[in-house]
Design brief:
The complex is a heterodimer of chains A (about 350) and B (about 575).
Chain A lengths: L13 H23 L2 H23 L4 H6 L2 H12 L6 H16 L12 H12 L20 H10 L14 H10 L4 H5 L12 H17 L6 H20 L7 H6 L3 H8 L10 H21 L6 H18 L21
Helix pairs in contact in A: 1-4, 1-10, 2-4, 2-5, 2-7, 4-5, 4-6, 5-6, 6-15, 10-13, 11-13, 11-14, 14-15
Chain B lengths: L20 H4 L4 E2 L5 E5 L9 E2 L6 E2 L4 E4 L8 E2 L4 E10 L7 E9 L18 H10 L12 H4 L14 E6 L8 H8 L1 H15 L3 E7 L3 H13 L5 E6 L8 H9 L14 E5 H13 L5 E8 L5 E6 L4 H7 L10 E3 L6 E2 L13 E4 L19 H5 L6 H9 L3 H6 L10 H5 L6 H60 L6 H26 L12 H24 L6
Parallel strand pairs in B: 1-14, 9-10, 9-12, 10-11, 13-17
Antiparallel strand pairs in B: 2-8, 3-5, 4-7, 5-6, 7-8, 13-14, 15-16, 15-17
Helix pairs in contact in B: 4-6, 5-8, 11-14, 14-16
Classes of the chains: A mainly alpha (about 350), B alpha/beta (about 575).
Bound molecules: iron/sulfur cluster (2 copies).
């Protein structure tokens, strides 16, 4: 089979799509390095190397051609997303375990590129936070908060030698989400929480600007038509709306919408993770439902669940529902009467 | 003339590189007279024409050599004067590459024509006019080649008004590379508009619109000028945005009127009829000059010496056409019939130009690089955003690939117009349309199989039923006969009359022969007549007749006197 069309959209391929996604992440990576030190470069590098190694290994084991599949770049996007979700300065094997869950379990055991049900990066993240909650708190504090600031050499040292000449505790601090959660539980007044060093003008100190850079990157993706507005808008809307509702009910226990939007992984999730086309819902209405629900669950986990951030779990949960949502939100086909489609598409066979 | 008409954007669509400049600059070039033409009998959608000539016959240019056969059919004509040298299967431009019946004409070089009579379309009875159009071989020149006379029938009119309110002339020509309609509009705008008027008159359309994509400003200018010279404003010239597949009938109708043609329906269902601009020109030629459809404009472009547009007679071998365009250049890698989005590979250069051929596009590896290897679908949705029918191409692909054709159909596979937009944009380079063509053909195949197996089953069931019944009747008859014999034996003497014995023997032999013949037939599974592939209603009728006949035979046999065991 090799019929029409005889012509394809020039310079359009999976590799190009993936490269553009990675390019859109760069502003946030720079901001992260600026506020939290060069550790992010180390974790990006380590995750990338593991990713390519594991991908090659899996392709060889599955008897797939290496060239086209390695070139597609999808595994690097996974590596970067995981690296950006994990605390930098964690020991190297933590990244390795995360990448094994992402690449081997979530991707290749499900059949490789395009076949996975769950977002690979989020599977890696979830596996780590469930298995190694301790290490998952080793976030470097923003400049001016941590006792010491770190240089690139020290970062490498920490990641590979672990507790060598320098102690990781000197560089890490609780994130804003964590802080809010513990302090609010202790009954501390909001006004007193918000002036703690973990907080900036809106979200976590430093993180708020990183979040804005994710937003910028997301707008680049939108401008390049790599994603549609539905998922980010619905996700952010879901987060804001839920946070706002809870905040109204009890401002002491629950932070406001702006704080939620600009802390933790919400912006990264809205533009780069929930939008992963393989695992998200794909119809326009489906995307709204899918991402809106994910936003809602994110805030619920943050406020009532056992984990500081809920982005990964909410997206994984909605991944399961995506095919179902798609089935019931098929768009009306051109020339079909609206009434034909009421109640969703009939499932033949 | 720019328009007050409000335009509507159809969903999806893509913007492939136009490549119109290669062939739209020079005027339409007439092809020189060739020594030989090959005129296929099947050039339109529907039944092929029935040949009217025999090998050895002399024909004149414009003479009908194949007559329309059945409802959906049109005639074909001799492209020049000469002699019929063969009527046989020849290569034709068709995706299957199969040969098809064609009339081969050796030109005598004189190009003598039959007398052509213009038609008085304003006074002629509409159905007579349509018949003449059918005899002149008019069919849609946009590629679908539907017989024009059918489309020119406004159909049953309620309350006296025509059900067709809008006639659209399709000058969108949205496929890349093709420019034949563009040139035609530039050079023959006046005639084309006159053709449109005739169409409008026949259809009783109140609005006549010519839709032209905005990448053809010269054509728009020429049409506008022709309209103002005629001092008429009965036709709207409307510029539509360039977007493939904006020239699809349903897409153009939507762009111009905002009316969606219902799925599975025709635009006429919503009062709109769409004709290609080339068809309007041919209609003008047919009506005003009595000239049957024996030539059309064909774009020859791509990797050839001098790309351009040629007025080629129907039957012109494509190899000759290519030669006229300077021949394929070094490194050519094949030819596409039609445009790059929906065209197909030409299998044989000996195939002739037919009414359906609007473009011969010569490929080269530089112009059409080999497609990169396909990667798995990443569900990016680019295909769905590009689909003008708002389908979910990746779902249809998934199920077609898994051979779950029922599910693929559930995603409205049969609404797919095979425009190729989805394949065009797919970053994984998946040949999506190929999968849909495959799935559709499989579904049709299964449908056919199912039908024939249904028929076979009914046939078998009926046969068993009949055999059973015959057996039963025979048994009854024997019982009856035995009873009668017994009764007779008891009442009267059965004298050994030699005459009676002889008669009885003859009768018995005849019966045995008949029974044997019948048995042989049933054993071979034969039926007395050709009853293959009949509609179920007819099948049932036959079954009833057979049943009646069965009883009748049994009855006569029962009346036969005294057949002893
Ligand atoms: S464009 Fe290709 S990769 Fe993207 S969803 Fe469609 S089929 Fe899949
Ligand atoms: S080929 Fe079919 S599925 Fe693909 S874009 Fe065209 S109509 Fe849609």
């Amino acid at each position: 089979m090799n019929g029409s069309p005889f012509t394809l959209l020039e310079r359009n391929s999976v590799s190009v799509v993936m490269l553009k996604v990675m390019a859109a992440l760069i502003p946030a990576i720079i901001a992260h390095a600026w506020f939290f030190g060069p550790g992010i470069w180390v974790s990006l590098l380590v995750c990338s190397v593991f990713a390519i190694g594991l991908e090659t290994l899996m392709l060889l084991m599955r008897g797939r051609p290496l060239g086209p599949f390695l070139k597609d770049g999808s595994v690097l996007v996974t590596a970067w997303l995981l690296a950006l979700s994990l605390p930098t300065l964690a020991p190297w094997w933590l990244y390795a375990v995360g990448m094994i869950f992402s690449v081997v379990v979530a991707k290749h055991l499900y059949g490789g590129l395009g076949q996975n049900l769950f977002n690979p990066a989020m599977v890696g993240y979830a596996a780590l936070i469930v298995s190694f909650p301790m290490y998952m708190t080793q976030w470097p504090g923003p400049i001016g908060v941590a006792v010491q600031s770190i240089n690139l050499g020290e970062a490498f040292d920490l990641v590979f030698a672990g507790q060598g000449s320098v102690s990781v505790d000197a560089f890490t601090s609780a994130t804003a989400l964590d802080t809010w959660k513990t302090q609010a539980r202790l009954g501390k007044p909001v006004a007193d929480i918000l002036v703690m060093p973990a907080f900036g003008w809106a979200g976590g100190r430093g993180q708020e600007l990183v979040s804005l850079m994710y937003l910028l990157g997301g707008l680049l993706l939108l401008g390049n038509r790599l994603i549609t507005w539905h998922i980010p808008a619905a996700f952010l809307g879901g987060v804001a709306f839920t946070a706002w509702g809870l905040h109204l009910l009890d401002p002491g226990q629950h932070a406001g919408p702006l704080f939620h939007l600009l802390s933790g992984g919400v912006m990264l999730g809205a533009f780069f993770i929930a939008t992963d086309p393989v695992t998200a819902a794909s119809t326009p209405r489906g995307k709204l439902i899918y991402a809106g629900m994910a936003g809602l669950i994110t805030v619920l986990i943050r406020n009532f669940g056992g984990y500081p951030d809920g982005v990964a779990f909410s997206i994984l949960l909605m991944n399961v529902a995506a095919p179902f949502i798609d089935t019931y939100t098929q768009p009306r086909v051109f020339g079909h009467k609206t009434s034909d489609q009421a109640g969703g598409r009939k499932d033949t066979a | 003339m720019s328009q007050p008409r409000k335009l509507h954007n159809f969903p999806g669509g893509v913007h492939p590189a136009g490549h119109k400049a290669e062939s739209n600059a020079s005027p339409i070039r007439p092809m020189p007279l060739l020594p030989r033409y090959v005129v296929p009998l099947r050039q339109h959608i529907g039944t092929p024409a029935r040949p009217l000539v025999q090998v050895g016959d002399r024909v004149l240019k414009g003479q009908m050599i194949g007559a329309a056969e059945g409802y959906v059919s049109t005639a074909v004509h001799a492209p020049t004067s000469g002699k019929v040298t063969a009527i046989e299967p020849r290569a034709v431009p068709h995706p299957s590459g199969l040969f098809d019946e064609a009339i081969v004409i050796e030109a005598d070089g004189e190009d003598r024509s039959i007398g052509m009579q213009p038609l008085d379309w304003r006074t002629l009875d509409p159905s007579a006019l349509r018949n003449r159009i059918r005899e002149m071989g008019l069919a849609g020149l946009g590629g679908a080649v539907f017989p024009s006379y059918i489309k020119l029938n406004p159909g049953a009119s309620r309350n006296g008004a025509s059900p067709i309110h809008t006639l659209i002339l399709n000058g969108a020509e949205c496929e890349p590379w093709i420019t034949c309609d563009d040139r035609l509009m530039r050079e023959r705008a006046t005639q084309m508009l006159e053709g449109a008027r005739i169409m409008g008159h026949m259809l009783g359309a109140r609005t006549v619109i010519v839709g032209v994509e905005d990448n053809k400003p010269e054509a728009i200018a020429a049409l506008t000028k022709a309209l103002s010279e005629a001092e008429a404003d009965d036709i709207e010239i409307v510029t539509v945005p360039t977007c493939y597949p904006g020239g699809g009938g349903k897409q153009l109708a939507y762009t111009l009127t905002g009316v969606e043609v219902p799925t599975g329906g025709l635009s006429t269902d919503v009062g709109i009829q769409v004709f290609n601009v080339g068809t309007a020109f041919s209609l003008y030629q047919a009506v005003m000059h009595g000239e049957p459809l024996i030539s059309r404009v064909v774009t020859v472009t791509g990797h050839v010496g001098t790309p351009g547009n040629f007025e080629a007679r129907v039957g012109t071998p494509i190899s000759d056409l290519l030669a006229a365009a300077g021949g394929s250049l070094e490194g050519a890698s094949g030819e596409i019939i039609g445009g790059p989005m929906m065209g197909f590979d030409l299998m044989d250069l000996a195939a002739p130009v037919t009414k359906a051929v609007n473009c011969v596009l010569v490929k080269s590896p530089a112009l059409f690089p080999p497609k990169p290897e396909a990667l798995p679908c990443i569900r990016c949705g680019a295909c769905a955003r590009a689909c003008p029918v708002e389908l979910q191409p990746f779902e249809m692909y998934w199920f077609s690939r898994a051979r779950d054709f029922g599910k693929a159909q559930g995603y409205n596979l049969f609404d797919c117009i095979e425009c190729g937009c989805c394949s065009f944009v797919c970053p994984s380079h998946i040949p999506l349309v190929d999968y849909y063509r495959f799935a559709k053909s499989e579904i049709w195949e299964r449908e056919r199989e199912k039908q024939s197996s249904d028929q076979a089953r009914t046939r078998h069931e009926f046969k068993t039923y009949r055999l059973e019944r015959e057996k039963q009747e025979k048994a009854d008859k024997f019982a009856k006969a035995a009873a009668e014999t017994k009764a007779k034996a008891s009442t009267a003497e059965t004298g050994d009359d030699p005459e009676a014995a002889k008669k009885k023997a003859i009768l018995e032999a005849a019966l045995a022969r008949a029974a044997k013949a019948k048995e042989e037939m049933t054993a071979a599974g034969l039926k007395p007549r050709n009853v293959e592939n009949l509609p179920p209603r007819v099948e049932q009728e036959i079954a009833e007749i057979e049943a009646r006949r069965g009883t009748a035979v049994a009855d006569t046999e029962a009346e036969m006197p005294k057949v002893d065991q």
